[in-house]
Amino acid sequence: MVATVLHSGVVNALGADIVSGRIPVGTALTLEGIQERFDVSRTVAREGMRILEAMHLVTSERRHGIVVQPPESWHVFDRRVIRWRLDSEHRPAQLRSLTELRIGIEPFAAHLAAARATEDEKDALRQAAGEMRVFGEAGRLDRYLAADIAFHRTVLRASHNEMYVALIEPVIEAVSERPLHGHSHAYPVPAAMDLHEAVMLAIADGDGAAAEAAMLGILSDVRSGIGAALHADDVTAG
Amino acid sequence: MVATVLHSGVVNALGADIVSGRIPVGTALTLEGIQERFDVSRTVAREGMRILEAMHLVTSERRHGIVVQPPESWHVFDRRVIRWRLDSEHRPAQLRSLTELRIGIEPFAAHLAAARATEDEKDALRQAAGEMRVFGEAGRLDRYLAADIAFHRTVLRASHNEMYVALIEPVIEAVSERPLHGHSHAYPVPAAMDLHEAVMLAIADGDGAAAEAAMLGILSDVRSGIGAALHADDVTAG
DNA sequence: TCAGGTAAAAGGTAGCACCTTTGATCGCTC
DNA sequence: GAGCGATCAAAGGTGCTACCTTTTACCTGA
């Protein structure tokens, strides 16, 4: 928490506290309280609050103080909000949300990639799929996972849609954590390698429908893993 | 642009300028320049910059000033960034991105909704689907569109995934603009009403696969509308 | 070519005036 | 005496000014 700039220390600490629920919704902070807690000047406290306000974690009103907002209004795609939730006890809920998001967007991202991938991106996909095969068969799990991550990252980038691109980090987070999501069978399976190869070939071939279908195949076991949580009652964030 | 708080005026003006490209990437602003342009104090200028910095529209470095960042680093899901892009000459590109996002997320949102919708949400879907039928057959286009919007909004909300919920406004924006996306045939068609009804019934019935399939049907003509733009070269944001 | 000086610009501090909202107190009426 | 409106003080964010500190790009000169 060594802050090159002071306000980022304030933001990180308070943001994590709010997102984790340690500071409950509705709590009214004051600038003076923040100044004292972090031993900073009013300016620093105010700039920190502006940042949290931009994330919709708090609102600031005269006479009312700085009021912690409910999760519904948070900017849940903000990198820092995601990070804070992953670092809190809400990590499982955050990973579930991310995985569901991934299930939604990856198939059509593959479709778009088939239409828009550059030669460089196609090369990167070929290499990633190849490495998954090689390291998967060799039992090199770490390298296999790295190739897997590179593959999915490249597909999203190759969609050339800035919103899909913006979701790369969150999706990668979900990909990396896959084993935690009820995905019980041994991790590198031949079927997965085949499917990644199919996605790669379809994208290289410009066949959007095939790329989408193959990506759906990759996600099918993630979907069944999520299935158990589908009727979960505690799906509200916070 | 009447700003109850001064810094929001600064943020809105500069944000729109940056996002539209009127202030090119790499431009270095200074606090002093901002103070003069908007006739505000240093405090206000700094707080405004903190907000733009939180959106990753600018970075602020000593000696360099406040440097405008490239579109890749923007927080493209920030409501204000989307709004500014929609209000700029990049509106078509933004709508295309949003429509592609919608195509990705709505089917699985329907799937999730089938598992998680509350009774109230199911009621809202029934009502929206019913109104689409009634107003569609009566030729009341405005009411038909309103019901359509309510329907899609409710499906996303019923997914009970905060990330899908956070995408409601952007998706609605795309839904409202559908006619602009090469969607050429007359707007309220019986097939659309049938499909919305099918989604509603599947969700009410808890049948995720059916809900997803029906939603894919709703999106099929949006997808064909996008098809023309699939190989567009100017897909980079900014 | 490298060392050191210089200055630009953000980072940070301090403190004041002001505005809005809240809520308590006071006084008037019935 | 009870209720109701007016007034006033305090809280706390908003905004401004002034000034010092720190970083670092860039220039100068050996």
UniProtKB/TrEMBL annotation, chains A, B:
<dbReference type="InterPro" id="IPR008920">
    <property type="entry name" value="TF_FadR/GntR_C"/>
</dbReference>
<dbReference type="InterPro" id="IPR036390">
    <property type="entry name" value="WH_DNA-bd_sf"/>
</dbReference>
<dbReference type="InterPro" id="IPR036388">
    <property type="entry name" value="WH-like_DNA-bd_sf"/>
</dbReference>
<dbReference type="InterPro" id="IPR000524">
    <property type="entry name" value="Tscrpt_reg_HTH_GntR"/>
</dbReference>
<dbReference type="GO" id="GO:0003700">
    <property type="term" value="F:DNA-binding transcription factor activity"/>
</dbReference>
<dbReference type="Pfam" id="PF07729">
    <property type="entry name" value="FCD"/>
</dbReference>
<keyword id="KW-0805">Transcription regulation</keyword>
<protein>
    <submittedName>
        <fullName>FadR family transcriptional regulator</fullName>
    </submittedName>
</protein>
<dbReference type="InterPro" id="IPR011711">
    <property type="entry name" value="GntR_C"/>
</dbReference>
<dbReference type="Pfam" id="PF00392">
    <property type="entry name" value="GntR"/>
</dbReference>
<keyword id="KW-0238">DNA-binding</keyword>
<feature type="domain" description="HTH gntR-type">
    <location>
        <begin position="4"/>
        <end position="71"/>
    </location>
</feature>
<keyword id="KW-0804">Transcription</keyword>
<dbReference type="GO" id="GO:0003677">
    <property type="term" value="F:DNA binding"/>
</dbReference>
